[in-house]
Design brief:
Structural class: alpha+beta
Number of domains: 1
Distance between the termini: 31 Å
Order of helices and strands: HEHHEEHH
CATH architecture: Orthogonal Bundle
Shape: globular
Radius of gyration: 15 Å
Helix content: 55-70%
Largest sheet: 3 strands, antiparallel
Length: 78
């Protein structure tokens, strides 16, 4: 049971906007425009001045962008 909880926690780690910006290479304004357009994972509001993202969702978004950009060349390596 402990292993399952650890795996779930790893998948649902909460990260701040600065980390999301580092992971994606995009600015704060670009990220919020993409969220508004429905093209980026939505953040979670934890408090009046605290907004976080789910790390796994950001990693998945980045992976999808890489696959789209590289096409089938990544699938052939696997």
């Amino acid at each position: 049971m402990k292993t399952q909880n650890t795996k779930l926690m790893q998948k649902t780690a909460l990260i701040r906007l600065s980390t999301v910006m580092s992971m994606t290479g995009y600015s704060k304004s670009w990220i919020y425009q993409a969220i508004k357009a429905g093209n980026f994972p939505k953040p979670i509001k934890l408090g009046p001045r605290t907004t976080v993202f789910i790390e796994y969702e950001i990693e998945l978004w980045v992976a999808e962008k890489v696959i789209t950009a590289r096409g089938n060349s990544l699938k052939e390596v696997s």
